[in-house]
Design goal:
Shape: flat
Radius of gyration: 23 Å
Strand content: 5-15%
Distance between the termini: 70 Å
Order of helices and strands: HHHHHEEHHEHHHHHEEHEEEEHHH
Number of strands: 9
Structural class: alpha+beta
Number of helices: 16
Helix content: 40-55%
Strand order of the largest sheet: 4-5-3-6
């Protein structure tokens, strides 16, 4: 059960939205959703199969939504390895169309609830904007002497379905739309990583916590990207109290737990805040060490222009000009060497 809030924002948030389902299931919206869902992915096998009987498949989606016979398809999973092992869930293409159809209508509602301090799943924001916000905060040296860095233990798998449904009912009263959202939420444990809707549900799950931090606790320097959270303050004692409040809020209201590797540390010339891929200091930021090592390993093997451009795009947002120059030169030497060997063969 989600306790009723008493903040000014939560009182305003009780104005709920109705009559949205008809907008979502309109043929025009479904066709738009299809266009967005296939963007940059038209070569995928699932989309090609869908296109073999395109008109009928679109008609079936519409019929299933109108008659409320729609059921989420079976998930396929695959494991990816980045900083850590993650299991990605992939839905059939028709379900991805439905998710986009929902978000075409609901995105403004989600965004209206998010505070200025959260940066995931919001157009015009993202990791680089989150990094810029932290960089800007660190300019206030007196009030950012110490940093609290936390994230949520197994966040996506730990999202409680009943709590999420109650939170959605704070903003939505359309019973047909709530039926559809409930059916998608209940289609898998927690929130499946890889679902288009999951990222918005996850951000929304913590949205009222953001308001609590800013309006109830009046935390001045607070930045959140998904479940990665940074709080800055002038002293450790204050951050310890903030941490205790977060742990209590998570447990009592959201059934979440803070990871045991949380830390409170001073921001110095040698110690920065590791956040959204960069280590942030007061006057500069560096790319995360693991990213740098990964880039160097791939360059040593020789990578294509597209992969090289991707790493350059990451590094150009920090003090990494010399790193880019060094690794680019190394990659060019490797490619020239390969070309020479292939000609000789």
């Amino acid at each position: 059960m989600v306790p009723k809030g008493n903040t000014t924002y939560e009182a305003k948030a009780m104005k709920r939205l109705n009559n949205l389902y008809e907008q979502i299931i309109s043929i025009d919206n479904i066709l738009l959703a299809d266009t967005l869902a296939r963007k940059g992915k038209s070569r995928q096998t699932g989309i090609k199969t869908f296109d073999n009987n395109y008109d009928q498949n679109i008609a079936d989606i519409y019929k299933d939504l109108v008659t409320k016979e729609y059921k989420t398809g079976e998930y396929q999973t695959r494991t990816i390895y980045e900083r850590k092992e993650r299991i990605i869930s992939i839905l059939p293409y028709r379900d991805r169309i439905v998710h986009h159809a929902i978000m075409n209508v609901l995105e403004p509602m989600f965004v209206s609830v998010f505070t200025a301090d959260t940066y995931s799943c919001i157009k015009g924001k993202g990791t680089h904007k989150a990094s810029e916000a932290l960089t800007e905060a660190l300019k206030d040296e007196q009030n950012t002497l110490y940093c609290l860095k936390i994230d949520v233990k197994k966040f996506y798998p730990s999202v409680d379905h009943e709590i999420l449904k109650q939170l959605l009912r704070r903003k939505i009263k359309d019973p047909e739309l709530l039926w559809l959202l409930d059916s998608i939420i209940d289609s898998a444990p927690g929130l499946p990583i890889g679902n288009y809707l999951s990222q918005y549900f996850a951000n929304f799950y913590l949205a009222y916590f953001d308001h609590w931090m800013k309006e109830q606790k009046q935390v001045k320097y607070y930045v959140r990207y998904a479940d990665d959270i940074i709080v800055l303050a002038s002293n450790k004692g204050y951050l310890r109290r903030v941490l205790a409040g977060i742990i209590k809020y998570f447990y009592n209201r959201l059934k979440l737990h803070v990871k045991s590797n949380y830390s409170i540390f001073p921001i110095t010339e040698k110690i920065g805040a590791d956040f959204v891929g960069y280590v942030h200091f007061r006057k500069h930021k560096r790319v995360r060490k693991t990213t740098k090592q990964n880039f160097a390993r791939k360059v040593a093997k020789g990578i294509n222009r597209e992969s090289l451009a991707s790493y350059k795009g990451c590094i150009k947002h920090c003090n990494g000009k010399h790193l880019i120059k060094k690794l680019t030169s190394q990659n060019e030497r490797i490619q020239r060497s390969r070309h020479t060997v292939s000609k000789q063969i």
